[in-house]
Amino acid sequence: MKILVTGGLGFIGSHTVVELQDKGFEVVVIDDCSNSSEKVLEGITSITGKMPLFEKIDLKEKSKVEAFFKKYQDIEGVIHFAASKAVGESVEKPLLYYENNIGTLVYLLKELSKKNTSNFIFSSSCTVYGQADKMPISETAPVKPAESPYGNTKQIGEEIIRDTCAVTQGLNAIALRYFNPMGAHPSGHIGELPIGVPQNLVPFITQTGVGLREQLSVFGDDYPTEDGTCIRDYIYVVDLAKAHVQALQRLLEGKNEENYEVFNLGTGKGSSVLEVIHSFERVSGKKLNYKIVDRRPGDVVSAYADTKKANEVLGWKAEYTLDEAMKSAWDWEQKIRG
Ligand code: WQD
């Protein structure tokens, strides 16, 4: 039995490949390496002792997707990470996002629809909730008009999958809505490799800590929160990877109650930007150089997960603390800059 992981050389994808291999699955990775490197294959192999099969394919090329599924007839499950994911870039280049994130999803689903049975795990995001009315955020919270084309591709993607599962015998799917992934594998062989100036908080913090960046800008401290900075649910990437294996096994074992299910993946704990900075200072023993600046357009005040459904139905729970995740991020940053 083979499992296809698209975007398997990326941040969350590579950590998921490790967890799949550790559970005995044979993995085929598709990646176009536009936002990752084939060197990640060595990192994965250093951890598991097994080099995953690898095909360098741009999923926008429909004929290549068709050829892949002709070559690999024994794909039993697909975990689909491959997508563009920079919120700001999506505002400037919407068509790049709709083509890459939606077009490729349609090509994959067309191939899976030809099989008698197929199991599909979709990488989605809490961004679909926008600013939710109630904290913590449960899966029944309304999906709100997207704040960016990136967020819209996640909403549209979920609807495409839902509608396809409704009329495709044998196609079962789960959408996993991530909160804020962070950290790196404890082995130090794989981790986040942001290209250029990081958009996300944690890599910007660790790059500032290691001297690559001069100073962190904190986007606003006048929000209606305890310390005035925004609150998010920072989830350790290894916890997140394990949830993908759990979701895949749910489908492979036929435990799903619907042909399309959704789960929020977070720790259930909200942390403010200043709390994340203090976590870095605790684990690194260094003072972080930061300044408060204006708010960033599009930021929601607060987002953290109601983990009840993931805990009780999926049978998964985040195990690592913010400090443990931050320590792994800091160790990784020092290693790659070392
Ligand atoms: C977190 C907090 C910022 C950078 C995004 C996507 C989401 C998912 C995760 C893909 C916010 C503050 C940040 C900085 C700061 N991506 N911040 N200074 O925006 O919650 O989520 O990434 O799936 O879909 O929307 O994450 O890390 O950018 O920001 O003060 O230099 O840190 O204002 O409050 P976000 P983030």
Descriptive overview:
The longest helix is centred in the first third of the chain and has 20 residues, at 94-113. The chain is an alpha/beta fold and 338 residues long. It has eleven helices and 13 strands. α5 packs parallel to α6 (149-167), α7 (201-209) packs parallel to α9 and α9 packs across α11 (322-337). Helix content is 41%, strand content 17%. The structure holds UDP-4-deoxy-4-formamido-beta-L-arabinopyranose. The site of UDP-4-deoxy-4-formamido-beta-L-arabinopyranose has 19 residues, from α7 and β8.
Keywords:
338 residues, alpha/beta, seven-stranded parallel sheet, two-stranded parallel ribbon, globular, binds UDP-4-deoxy-4-formamido-beta-L-arabinopyranose
Summarize the structure.
With 338 residues, the chain is an alpha/beta fold. It is 41% helix and 17% strand. It starts with a strand and ends with a helix.
Secondary structure blueprint with pairings:
Elements: E1 2-6, H1 11-22, E2 26-30, H2 39-48, E3 53-55, H3 62-71, E4 75-80, H4 87-92, H5 94-113, E5 118-125, H6 149-167, E6 171-178, E7 180-182, H7 201-209, E8 216-219, E9 231-232, E10 234-236, H8 237-252, E11 260-265, E12 271-272, H9 273-284, E13 290-293, H10 308-314, H11 322-337
Parallel strand pairs: 1-2, 1-4, 2-3, 4-5, 5-6, 6-11, 7-10, 8-13
Antiparallel strand pairs: 9-12
Helix pairs in contact: 1-2, 1-8, 3-5, 5-6, 7-9, 7-11, 9-11
UDP-4-deoxy-4-formamido-beta-L-arabinopyranose binds next to helix 7 and strand 8.
Pathway: Carbohydrate metabolism; galactose metabolism
Subunit structure: Homodimer.
Domain NAD(P)-binding: 4-327
